[in-house]
Automatic annotation (TrEMBL):
InterPro entries: GRAM (IPR004182), PH-like_dom_sf (IPR011993). Pfam families: GRAM. It comes from Ameca splendens. This is GRAM domain-containing protein. Residues 32-102 form the GRAM domain.
Length: 156
């Protein structure tokens, strides 16, 4: 959908479109306050899976517990610690490799994933599997590498 409005700047136009859809604006307009469990979404972006009690294995500060949300275009991790908010936002276009890793001493239903990004970032997560939810590693693989899964409908 393309809109052409004479005399309107792009920021005002995007702010107006986002306000019509009740979504926060990203990059343009006034900063938007998000609730702790709210993920900033682009217009048309949908949440695929949300997993609570995920541990981000930080190379600098150790384990950080939080919520991991996978959308159509990104992985979004927010910490549960109130004093220091930690947010990790990784666009799927930045991921070069996705691997499962072993998580020792955490129980049988605990899995781990490692994301290696093209910009040298590396993120490791450990989470408990739940039979009622789809497999997070598979969901990440499908959206990060859609051509490998013949998901051409995701590419626009």
């Amino acid at each position: 959908m393309f809109l052409a409005v004479e005399g309107a700047d792009l920021g005002a136009l995007l702010t107006a479109l986002c306000s019509l859809q009740n979504r926060p604006t990203l990059g343009f307009g006034a900063p938007v306050k998000l609730s702790p469990n709210q993920v900033p979404l682009l217009p048309g972006e949908t949440v695929q899976i949300t997993v609570k009690d995920v541990m981000y294995i930080c190379p600098f500060s150790g384990l950080i517990t939080g919520t991991l949300t996978v959308t159509d275009y990104k992985l979004y991790f927010t910490s549960l610690i109130k004093e220091s908010s930690f947010i990790l936002d990784i666009n799927f276009g930045a991921i070069s490799r996705l691997e499962t890793i072993s998580v020792p001493n955490q129980g049988d239903n605990t899995k781990g994933i490692e994301l290696v990004c093209k910009d040298i970032r590396s993120a490791r997560f450990a989470y408990k599997t739940d039979e009622s939810q789809p497999e997070m590693g598979e969901m990440l693989s499908k959206h990060a590498f859609p051509l490998s899964y013949s998901l051409v409908s995701l590419i626009k």
